[in-house]
Amino acid sequence: MVSNFLGVYRPGLVYISDPSWANHFPIVEKSGLNHTKYPYFDPKTNGLNFKGMIETLSKAPEGSIVLLHACAHNPSGVDPTQQQWREIAEVVQKQKLFPFFDSAYQGFASGDLEKDAFQIRLFHDMGLQMIVTQSFAKNFGLYGERVGAIHFVTKSTDVAARVASQLKYTQT
User: What are the structural domains of the chain?
Assistant: First the structure.
């Protein structure tokens, strides 16, 4: 049992796109969480397997974490449309899933930093708590520097304080 971001004890299950960046799997494993895959890329169409993705996430247990590539999906390069992001957000909200965005290529998908953050703003505007990680190695030309940020979006100062308390344990 792992305490999730909301402070409720649930099994730690992380849904990761198939395919995904290879390092996502060992990172999740090292954190002590279990993972499973959700359909993402359809090799027959070289596009998004949106139906498979939605069907799988619609059956995910409440409190599960869903790892989402914000834009320029790695390794497929295929992204949901804005309408598909709205449907994904609705499923996440309905199923009470916890979104975790990996934003490594903001500005690369559309050429516009604002447009490539649409989905994160959408989830925020819907009142969803989430984690957003950002890499600045590519879009700021800082290759090899491992420069980035992690953001915790919470609904209350109480939850924010609990997150801050837990983060103190991760400092070295």
Answer: 10-152+162-170 (3.40.640.10)
SS3 34: strand
Active-site residue, 85 included: no
Catalytic residue among 21, 85, 115, 158: 21
What one-character-per-residue DSSP string does 83-128 give?
HHHHHHHHHHHHHT-EEEEEES-TTTTTS-TTGGGHHHHHHHHTT-
Per-residue pLDDT tens listing for the chain (172 residues) = 344 555 544 556 999 999 999 999 999 999 889 999 999 999 999 999 999 999 999 999 999 999 999 999 999 999 999 999 999 999 999 999 999 999 988 888 898 989 999 999 999 999 999 999 998 877 777 777 777 889 999 999 999 898 888 888 876 5
Q: What is the pTM of this model?
A: 0.88
Which of 18, 42, 96, 138 is an active site residue? 138
Tokens of 80: 């949901």
